[in-house]
Amino acid sequence: MYNPKSKIADEFISHEEILETLKYADENKNNFKLIDEILEKAKEAKGLTHREASVLLACEDDERNEEIFKLAKKIKQDYYGNRIVLFAPLYLSNYCVNGCVYCPYHAKNTHIPRKKLTQEEIKKEVIALQDMGHKRLAIEAGEDPVNNPIEYILDSIKTIYSIKHKNGAIRRVNVNIAATTVENYRKLHEAGIGTYILFQETYNKESYEKLHPTGPKHNYNYHTEAMDRAMEGGIDDVGLGVLYGLESYRYEFAGILMHAEHLEAVYGVGPHTISVPRIKKADDIDPSTFDNGIDDDTFAKIVACIRIAVPYTGMIVSTRESESCRARLLELGISQISGGSKTSVGGYYEPMPEKDDSAQFDVSDRRPLDEVLRWLMQLGYLPSFCTACYGSGRTGDRFMEICKKQQIHNFCHPNAIMTLKEYLEDYASPETKEVGEKLIAKELETLTGVKNTVEENLVKIEHGERNFKF
User: Fold this and answer.
1) Predicted model pTM
2) pLDDT per residue as tens digits for the range 369-398
3) DSSP 429-455
4) In order of start, what are the domains of the chain with their CATH numbers?
5) What is the full DSSP assignment across 197-248?
6) What is the tally of helices (H) and strands (E) in the chain?
7) 327: which of 2, 6, 188, 424 lies 20 to 30 Å off by Cα?
8) Short-list 187, 289, 179, CA closest to 238
């Protein structure tokens, strides 16, 4: 049944293979000889199979678990250095026809305020996001063919890209909308999107169908095969994710790695990003009703093992998680975070009421973007608003070829420095600017070959020029 080269969901995400993998991991979780062999292979930083990684996730030995965490930190550093990419979600509409039992946007929720942004409201939201300093957005919308047709999404993308306010501009729009057709993915590609993101929620088909009892999302195979249709439609950067807490985390871990293996086997390009959200409280959703919740230590190990298994992928953690949790995960593999986020339809231009019943989930990290940036820099990270790969056509296999050789920092590091300088000039508080200028001076000393060019560009940025890139 298991065939990573198949385009049939039940074959590239084989339930039987996952069960056999979990059994194999249980049988070998204290097989130190095997674990040491897997760790040796992992040190090559070329990834692991879903079975090998599942053994590491199941490992119970403290000494070897510490080795796993150390290795994850090294691989993160080798591939992505100290750079952390910033983005913000923009919710366009919470109209939805699905019956997802973990999401407050489900169709039967009659008391949640329903809203859909007009193009004029989108302009106001985007200007507010630009005035915060954001350059990269992830647009979100419920699935509703009447209220949120593909034409509405395309019009919204066009609106977002058209807005140039002061020195602000959104340079990359990632899209997180429901599974759709090859034709619609082609339209999204032609609209110039960045990454197409779709969370699987759970790879357990039986659980999936129970969690999605009504609506088009109930169709497990159609949803799971969405990335194949996106690739066929010309989108070569896709982002995976599951919602931890719905099903056994070890099942989901194996499933998402199998999905990554499938994309590699068929297209030669694995997931551009992997997100790791945990279920959170929201309106009529109580996370305690789901009995697969994971604690922070388990969560940290999942992130570390994904980083080891899929070393090239960008890893995302959102403001669902607290400041302290995010700080821990940044070390272990996370390379992108959201900042200053709103999870309601609206809220950037005009603040939402203190009691907001329209949020998709509760935000744990509520700090403004400027504070998040200063915090990152004080932790030793280099905040980045870079979108140069997208702007230069380094996507899909072109990005992966560079990234897998651990050479992407030759582009990303100088670009991160220059986009941070833009932020400091245009948006930073005096305190953040002081911290940032010291960091830039330090990071410049690590550059080779392009240092003089970057220094020249930094002076030009001080004089009003923008959007330099390698």
Assistant:
1) 0.94
2) 999 999 999 999 999 999 988 888 888 888
3) -HHHHHHHHHHHHHHHTT--SSHHHHH
4) 77-366 (3.20.20.70)
5) E---B-S-HHHHHHHS-SSGGG-HHHHHTHHHHHHHTT---EEEEB-BTSS-
6) 20, 11
7) 424
8) 179
